[in-house]
Write the structure tokens for this entry.
Amino acid sequence: MRSKPGHSFAPDFISPGNPARMQDTATYACAYCGEPNVTFPDWSGGRRQQYIEDCTVCCQPNVLYLTLDHDGETVCVFAEPG
């Protein structure tokens, strides 16, 4: 398959030290309004991460807990009010 100039068929996520594909986004439900939001896990930040991200709909802070599986294909996200 050939790409047109300016277009890439490269995978949208790759492992830093492994050619296996990794999930580059994860979806979670806002702890306040329940609307779906997308977050971008940082694979260099370790397998367990915690950070605060504002909901894109209601702007309330969500504390996100992420668990990244070693297989690079699974991201588990849990959100609670911040």
Notes: The radius of gyration is 15 Å. Residues 1-20 have pLDDT under 50 and may be disordered. Strands lie at 26-29, 36-39, 48-54, 61-68, 75-81. The chain is about 0% helix and 35% strand.
